[in-house]
TrEMBL record:
<dbReference type="GO" id="GO:0003723">
    <property type="term" value="F:RNA binding"/>
</dbReference>
<protein>
    <submittedName>
        <fullName>ATP-dependent RNA helicase DHX8-like</fullName>
    </submittedName>
</protein>
<dbReference type="GO" id="GO:0003724">
    <property type="term" value="F:RNA helicase activity"/>
</dbReference>
<dbReference type="GO" id="GO:0071013">
    <property type="term" value="C:catalytic step 2 spliceosome"/>
</dbReference>
<dbReference type="GO" id="GO:0000390">
    <property type="term" value="P:spliceosomal complex disassembly"/>
</dbReference>
<dbReference type="InterPro" id="IPR027417">
    <property type="entry name" value="P-loop_NTPase"/>
</dbReference>
């Protein structure tokens, strides 16, 4: 919820309302299962609202890239086609595809893949 150098008073009101106050909540670095890790991300609370949004802005590590694509798939958006997620760098694209395939429970190259251009 907070960027580098931001104080609690600097947090925009919409973030305070969405995440329940001034206290930041980030995924914990523990031995949690993948499901527990997903559910611990700040973006998880907004899952139902997010699948209706076109543009999402969030802090690094909040789950934008790895979670929203899965939320859309779980909501049935893949029945008519594919969901694309862009990454500016080859390494990032491969890392994201690998992570999402692990979370989604499939082998990379099946339901989840990376196309590099």
């Amino acid at each position: 919820m907070r960027g580098i150098g931001m104080m609690p008073n600097d947090i925009p009101e919409w973030k305070k309302r969405a995440f329940g106050g001034n206290k930041a909540s980030y995924g914990k670095k523990t031995q949690l299962s993948i499901l527990e890790q997903r559910e611990s991300l700040p973006i998880y609370k907004l899952k139902e609202q997010l699948i209706q949004i076109l543009i999402v802005i969030g802090e690094t590590g909040s789950g934008k890239t790895t979670q929203i694509t899965q939320y859309l798939a779980e909501a049935g958006y893949t029945t008519r086609g594919k969901i694309g997620c862009t990454q500016p760098r080859r390494v990032a694209a491969m890392s994201v595809a690998k992570r999402v395939s692990e979370e989604y429970g499939c082998c990379l190259g099946q339901e989840v893949d990376a196309f590099l251009y």
